[in-house]
Design the sequence.
């Protein structure tokens, strides 16, 4: 299914969200014990995987504003499943910027047919997650990756590795390739249904036509990092909106006024001035996060996938950094304030309302927001351009 307009894409996102909604509590509780095949099939067959494929390759070429709203819509219902295609959209962009023509033709055709791209980029055990030990030796890749969101159920997995000359490459490997295994060892407090566990490559054959010079993508001014971070920002803002929605519903249908409020004449929670103040403040902060997300997406729409120069790249990166940093803080706050507003009964496990905080807290540390504020300050005060990498 080809979704040709932003309106088509957003309607499709709401349809997928409707499929996801009934099972969100069960998926959160099950974690990696149950792979959400049916829910991800709804995503894969919706047409949403192809929305950012460039028009010259048969896609609609829809921009960041559409992508951000699609992801925010999905994340407000289930942020774990909404994170599954994050790497997919990054890889679609990487192919557009620096993919060989053979790789573009082959992989974009698959994407438009509903075949999802997973990622295997980060590693454990080194000085940091991108301190790589995975090697591409000749035409075979060997190594172990973690945080492989989407890999378990993908059609293709993009694996980063150093080649024989120690240059960073990105190889696309079929999910069912011999020597490739994906484990369900993801065991964390939040974002459980992403099942972002270990992927092992044991001398897996790589088609040379499906290898990208990944180092070159970040050696010039780029927006790959900003566009990838935009999806993460949309997930956080979606979590915040979902927590606010469930807070409102609980207050309207289940919460009782505090005894002290009753003493001051409140007949229900709507008569408690402290509830109204705290809820109103939280509502405004969620709206602010949504506005920052929309502004960042609009900036990326204007700048384009390949920025004109380093100044344009910096503007896009810092705009997204602001949305991601603030959105992360508001999502964590909304997940916590829910209980201050709704009261002790909201902590009952049957409601699973703590999933909002767990999801926000888990996802918000994907990359530190402190460095985003640091780079914003460095640019505004000292005129220092932010670094050109995938997390800003």
Sequence:
């Amino acid at each position: 299914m080809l979704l040709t307009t932003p309106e088509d894409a957003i309607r499709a996102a709401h349809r997928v969200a409707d499929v996801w909604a009934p099972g969100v509590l069960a998926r959160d509780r099950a974690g990696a014990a149950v792979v959400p095949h049916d829910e991800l099939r709804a995503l894969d067959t919706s047409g949403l995987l192809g929305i950012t494929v460039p028009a010259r390759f048969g896609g609609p070429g829809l921009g960041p504003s559409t992508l951000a709203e699609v992801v925010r819509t999905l994340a407000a219902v289930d942020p774990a499943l909404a994170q599954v295609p994050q790497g997919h959209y990054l890889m679609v962009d990487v192919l557009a910027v620096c993919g060989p023509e053979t790789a573009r033709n082959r992989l974009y055709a698959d994407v438009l047919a509903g075949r999802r791209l997973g990622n295997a980029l980060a590693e454990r055990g080194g000085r940091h997650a991108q301190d790589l030990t995975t090697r591409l030796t000749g035409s075979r890749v060997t190594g172990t990756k973690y945080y492989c969101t989407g890999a378990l159920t993908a059609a293709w997995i993009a694996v980063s590795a150093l080649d024989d000359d120690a240059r960073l490459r990105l190889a696309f490997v079929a999910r069912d390739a011999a020597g490739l295994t994906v484990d369900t060892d993801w065991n964390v407090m939040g974002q459980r249904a992403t099942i972002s566990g270990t992927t092992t490559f044991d001398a897996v054959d790589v088609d040379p036509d499906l290898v990208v010079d990944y180092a070159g993508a970040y050696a010039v001014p780029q927006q790959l990092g900003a566009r990838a971070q935009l999806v993460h920002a949309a997930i956080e803002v979606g979590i915040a909106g979902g927590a606010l929605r469930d807070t409102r519903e609980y207050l309207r249908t289940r919460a009782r006024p505090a005894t002290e409020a009753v003493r001051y004449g409140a007949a229900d929670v709507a008569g408690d001035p402290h509830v109204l103040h705290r809820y109103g403040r939280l509502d405004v902060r969620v709206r602010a996060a949504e506005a920052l997300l929309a502004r960042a997406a609009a900036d990326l729409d204007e700048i384009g996938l390949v920025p004109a120069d380093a100044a344009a790249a910096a503007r896009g990166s810092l705009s997204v950094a602001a949305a991601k940093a603030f959105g992360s803080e508001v999502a964590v706050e909304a997940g916590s304030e829910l209980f201050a507003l709704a009261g002790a009964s909201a902590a009952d496990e049957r409601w699973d309302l703590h999933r909002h905080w767990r999801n926000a807290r888990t996802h918000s540390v994907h990359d530190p927001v402190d460095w985003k504020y640091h780079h914003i300050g460095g640019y505004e005060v000292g005129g220092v351009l932010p670094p050109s990498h995938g997390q800003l």
Notes: The radius of gyration is 21 Å.
